[in-house]
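Comment thread on ticket #2218

A.B. wrote:
> Attaching the input chain for the structure job we discussed in standup.
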Amino acid sequence: MARELGVSTATVSRALNGHPHVSEETRRKVVEGAARMGYQPNVLARALRQEHSRLVGLIVPDVRSDFFAVATSVLQDVLTDHGYRLILGVSGDRPEVDRDYVSTMLQHRVEGIVHVPCTDDGAAPYLRTARDAPPVVEFLRHSRVRHCDTVVSDEERGAGELARHVLGLGHRRLAVIAGPERFSTTRDRAGGFAAAAADAGLEVQVLYGEYAHEWGRTAMERLLDQETPPTAVFAAGNQLVSGALQTAADRGIALPEELSLVGADDPDWYRSCRPAVTTFAAPLEQMGMVTAQTLLGRMGSDPKAAVGPVDCRLAGRLTVRGSCAPPPAGR
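C.D. wrote:
> Ran it. Output below, let me know if you need it in another format.
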């Protein structure tokens, strides 16, 4: 570019990087020349030279679910406002893919990583051997190894509120349709629901599977086929709710007259169902905001961030709608 435009390489660099000591005419000449030649700056080389990439890695299992999409959108907005760009990786909850994305983030010299872990160790094994490992914040889920900051919803407390709600209506036969037990959200939701029932002297049947519509259908079929099926079911995820509702509809079971159902998350369609779904929802926007602020503090060497890992659990919201009623007489 310098040879083509008849200027020095230093002038080209200053013009493209917004240096103040470049005339507007020269800056325009360089910018137009860069566009004509198809020049693209080498971001990695610039990061090596400046020691700041202004990149943040974000690893999530899915971008189609409200549970991840809403918080991710807020997170991106806040980081962008502070001059950072996101590199997105979608792990599909596959440990090998998750591992590859962590490695890729490190190779791109990201300044921080926001991670939704899909294993008990999270990103810890990959970061221990990394030179100058960036700060990591786990959000929406947490690993068992407390090696970094975490920002999650108080799922255990929320599930307990759901259980106390159906217990207050008189239900005594309760069940949970849950996702994989290895995820903290699953353990907290199933555990919180069961603990509240145990306080009332009751046991809860928990069926673990996948956060998928088909598992919601299959699990509800198993529950309804029992000799004494439950009168209230907690489907611990929106895809599980949709599957459970389909099974109930296929079998002609009326909600809430014959069966009560409560869920987790709160997509828009919960409100448009008939009956609308009673649920506990995490504060997704707040979680995205707190996660971004936490990571910004770590990347900016905030003195308050020098202490050990912080575990932030934010309160969600119980919303009571029409999917619950007292159990049928005699049940």
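A.B. wrote:
> Thanks. Noting for the ticket: The longest helix spans residues 66-81.
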